[in-house]
Design goal:
Helices cover 39% and strands 17% of the residues. It has 735 residues and is an alpha/beta fold. The strands form four sheets. A seven-stranded mixed beta sheet has the order 14-13-12-15-17-16-23, with helices on both faces.
Length: 735
């Protein structure tokens, strides 16, 4: 049986995207609420009901789903009681009156405004006016209350139709429909047909089939336009309607092929007797050469709504284990119609199918208006030694970005000076960036800067205030370009009343005291790491599994110029090697942990100065010292070419990373580990990932890969969690 849900999921997750805003007028239907609990990865749900009532329904009806899944879904949702939004009721009613006048229907604003409190109409108008992208209903409302107004108001084409998609169970005879996949149309919209409408329905239904079923599963979409006649065997209105429609199909299909080449795999024939399309035995009796084409049809288009609706419900009841769902064509993916006997799975599949088509085959980029999910505008700053990465995010979307380069000539006045003296110079560069994008400080909701070398603090988003700025200006815990993040952020919001934040700086330390004890009192371990990307990666894994950082146990290996391997247990970052000082596996540029006795001897050998040893520890160690390059691609090329030395060093690197990963098992105190997460630039190497997967298999939790550092998005998301009320910013220093 073709796993259509897995196919939809893989296509939806193929690349990061904005999530469309989807409105659910039937928020208090348990089936709808259960379905949405499996959709939060793909959509932003809006429940048109009071939040307390939705939560009460979830508590009483959805305990079987598990607390995490339900809690996560509700945390990602908006709750709108239409009666509590007089502003939107007036907006929608005004638009409805204008629309009515243009269609010869005359009602007063007061009459219409009262009806707008109905969740169905409220949801439909929210989509029509750009406050949301899709509305889903019909499970508890009659067609005249939801479906008909939805089609009338949201139709983007002169002819709309509804396709019923079925993946039949293996118990269905497998010699009728290839892979037991069949799509019926029209099953819901057109109560009467003329040749043009029927031809449009045939092409539209086939387009839905082509969009949803990959070509490696169904190389061709083969449509049978059915009737009670078979290729001229009988006469009457129905056969004549199908014949005339069939004559119009080539021209309509040609226009669709111009829209996208994939529709060239569609083939439509008619008129074909119903039994010939549904039964190979009948086809053999009516045709000496079997079915109309070898392999059988996978789309059945009916000449009237009664027949299409009958086939949909007949197959629904005859094969209750079938994967089935309706899909609208002609509404530009803006509406999902549900039959009243739908299951939560039907709803889930219908929404996923429409969202997938919205992403892959529409022109949708993001919800036009941010009424239900505010798109706060956040400036993100990540200072490096010779550059300042600068981005503006609107909600989760990065709207513009630039890595502002600072030339050697520009940096010369600051040589030998404290890093903090650069913040005014860098602030001016950021202001020029904003001005070039037509923005000023007043256009921002917040600024998030990369955190610096502060006192050890827990993870989270931190307010930039006077104590933090004092510590950074003093530089007592080290000089590093990241110290500039909070300073620049503070300068940019000065006088605007807007907040400045830092997020998960390198000094995040939630380790137990036992983790820091060494065999020398004078040398306790310091916890300094790629905390920002470590925690962001763990959060991303949790979100993909529709739960929270506080509910997962993961080991994260950040593999870049430096390597840190951290243990994250139920929302605490409990152990990690000090990547800044060189502890842990060696890396492209860092020596990693070294044999202490030999290191002491080397330090006092007179061979190196202190500065030279520090450079070997961080900057000229690791792969640079061993193989003369920090480029892992070059190292892998040497390995593939048979370079024995490169092969040995590469094996040592992967072994040390795997050893660091598996060594963290005790940190979870016997609790199961959910996953090993690989991130950083080196995680782009399929060879490295495969080897680490093999070497860590004994942990039994599997490996998940998140290449790159994603620091700018992580900073933005930290600020957005606070601005949206999902997290409270902390004040520095911690108590």
């Amino acid at each position: 049986m073709f796993d259509i849900e897995a196919s939809l999921d893989s296509r939806l997750l193929a690349e990061p995207r904005n999530r469309p805003t989807v409105v659910f007028p039937e928020a208090l239907d348990p089936r709808t609420l259960e379905a949405v609990c499996f959709l939060a990865r793909f959509i932003r749900p809006v429940f048109l009901a009071p939040e307390a009532e939705v939560r009460a329904l979830a508590a009483s009806q959805l305990a079987h789903l598990g607390e995490d899944r339900v809690a996560y879904t509700l945390s990602e949702s908006a709750f709108v009681d239409p009666a509590s939004r007089p502003d939107l009721l007036t907006t929608f009613a005004t638009a409805c009156v204008e629309w009515g006048h243009s269609h010869g229907r005359y009602q007063s604003l007061e009459e219409v405004r009262g009806s707008m409190a109905d969740p169905c109409l409220f949801g439909i108008w929210a989509v029509k006016l750009g406050h949301a992208d899709m509305v889903v209903g019909g499970a508890i409302h009659e067609p005249k209350a939801f479906f008909r107004p939805m089609v009338e108001l949201l139709a983007q084409r002169s002819v709309a139709c509804e396709a019923g998609v079925f993946v039949l169970p293996d118990s269905h005879p497998d010699d009728v429909y290839p892979h037991n996949i069949v799509v019926f149309g029209d099953v819901g919209v057109n109560a009467s047909m003329n040749p043009r409408t029927l031809a449009e329905v045939a092409v539209g239904t086939c387009a839905v089939a082509r969009d949803l079923i990959p070509e490696d599963v169904l190389p061709e979409i083969r449509c049978a336009m059915v009737s009670y006649s078979n290729r001229g065997s009988d006469e009457g209105p129905s056969p004549e309607l199908v014949r005339q429609a069939a004559d119009l199909v080539p021209g309509i299909l040609a226009e669709r092929v111009k829209h996208a080449a994939r529709y060239g795999t569609i083939h439509i024939r008619g008129e074909i007797k119903v039994s010939v399309a549904l039964s190979r035995r009948s086809a053999d009796l009516y045709h000496a050469d079997g079915l109309p084409w070898e392999g059988g049809p996978n789309v059945i288009v009916c000449p009237n709504l009664d027949m299409g609706n009958l086939l949909y419900h007949l197959y629904s009841t005859r094969f209750p284990d079938a994967k089935k769902f309706p899909v609208m064509f002609g509404l530009w993916f803006q509406g999902v119609d549900l039959p009243m006997d739908c299951t939560p799975e039907d709803i889930r599949l219908a929404v996923k199918a429409s969202v997938m088509r919205l992403h892959h085959y529409g022109e949708w980029k993001r919800t036009p208006k941010d009424t239900f999910f505010r798109r706060h505008r956040v400036l993100v700053l990540n200072p490096g030694s010779t550059s300042t990465k600068t981005s503006v995010f609107e909600g989760d979307e990065e709207r513009c970005t630039e890595e502002i380069q600072h030339t050697a000539e520009e940096m010369k006045p600051f040589e030998g000076r404290p890093i903090t003296e650069q913040f005014t110079f860098r602030k001016e560069a950021v202001l020029r960036f904003l001005a070039g994008k037509g923005l000023s400080q007043e256009d921002l909701d917040a600024v998030a800067g990369r955190g610096g070398l502060l006192r050890p603090i827990p993870h989270g988003t931190w307010n930039v205030g006077a104590p933090m700025l004092e510590d950074l200006m003093a530089g007592k815990r080290g000089e590093h370009a990241s110290n500039l993040g909070a300073l620049i952020a503070s300068e940019l919001v000065a006088g605007t009343g807007k907040p400045a934040y830092i997020v998960d700086p390198v000094v995040v330390d939630e380790a137990d005291p036992k983790v820091k004890i060494t065999g020398l009192k004078e040398l306790p371990r310091r916890v300094i790491s790629h905390a920002l990307n470590q925690i962001a990666t763990a959060r991303r894994y949790a979100e993909e599994h529709e739960t929270f950082y506080e509910r997962v146990n993961v080991i994260v290996a950040h593999m870049g110029g430096g390597i840190t391997v951290g243990a994250h247990r139920k929302g605490r970052y409990i152990d990690v090697n000090n990547g800044l000082d060189g502890e842990g596996p060696f890396s492209p540029q860092r020596s990693g942990s070294l044999p202490p006795g030999q290191l002491i001897d080397l330090c006092f050998s007179g061979k190196y100065t202190k500065a030279e040893l520090k450079l070997l520890n961080k900057g000229r160690g690791g792969m640079i010292d061993l193989l003369g390059t920090a480029d892992m691609r070059e190292v892998e090329r040497r390995v593939e070419a048979g370079d024995a030395e490169a092969g040995l060093v590469y094996a040592a690197l992967t072994y040390q990373i795997a050893k660091a990963i598996t060594a963290l098992a005790p940190a979870f105190e016997g609790e199961p580990i959910d996953a090993i997460l690989l991130t950083g630039g080196m995680a782009r190497s399929a060879k490295l990932v495969a080897e680490l997967d093999r070497l860590t298999a004994a942990l039994g939790c599997g490996v998940k890969v998140y290449p790159g550092e994603n620091e700018m998005a992580a900073l933005a998301k930290g600020a957005l969690r606070v601005l949206s009320g999902r997290e409270t910013a902390r004040d520095y220093p911690p108590a």
